[in-house]
């Protein structure tokens, strides 16, 4: 991994911008669009535009965007505060997660807190380190949301299951966006079925059990593959879907 000449944490993002360019917040996508990001790599350091997420309990990406924008303004304290807001999203998910998924969430939170403390102290970090931390957080949240979707299905709360399944797919997409390259392509391919059937379940539309199972399975495989790339040992548990009723 390439590291830059020591500088304050707020300076490294500006150093990556083309000469004469000004940092600007990413444009918000249409309301119907899932979070997306364009990734570019130079000398092993990622310079991805941040995924665009909703500022609510289903995604920390709005806070990650806020952290990047604060760094561009040389506001290290503001960036640290944004990362801690993202930590709170993971903490709320951890309260309802199973033991294995809770470990993934708590590990991701610890990584974000490490970055926040570094920003507090003005310590240099590489772009790649931050992007991997953001990817790990989105991946852990997607694991939790897929688990919640399976639990909701077991209660025959099909619309809630669809909402959680779709949220998990969106966060896996975002995790892939942070990593870029093949990880991004693989994550987006793995979430197509879950996105489609999750949307139909959430809206009360028609669906078949087999297509729901495919959505859970492809999402689980995508989570496992991206987790392996991140060095996260927690795997998606097989979704045991009962018969359609």
Strand composition percent: under 5%
Structural class: mainly alpha
What would you report as the Rg, rounded to the nearest angstrom?
18 Å
Largest β sheet strand count, sense and barrel closure: 2 strands, antiparallel
Tell me the number of helical segments per DSSP (H or I, 4 or more residues long).
Answer: 8
Arithmetic mean of pLDDT: 79
Helix content: 55-70%
Query: How far apart are the first and last residues' alpha carbons, in Å?
Result: 52 Å
Question: What is the succession of H and E elements?
Answer: HEEHHHHHHH
Number of strands: 2
Low-confidence stretches at least 5 residues in length (pLDDT < 50)?
1-56
Backbone shape = elongated
| Strand order of the biggest β-sheet | 1-2
Write the layout of secondary structure elements.
Layout: H1 9-16, E1 41-42, E2 45-46, H2 61-72, H3 76-94, H4 99-120, H5 127-154, H6 158-179, H7 181-202, H8 209-230
Helix pairs in contact: 1-2, 2-3, 3-4, 4-5, 5-6, 5-8, 6-7, 6-8, 7-8
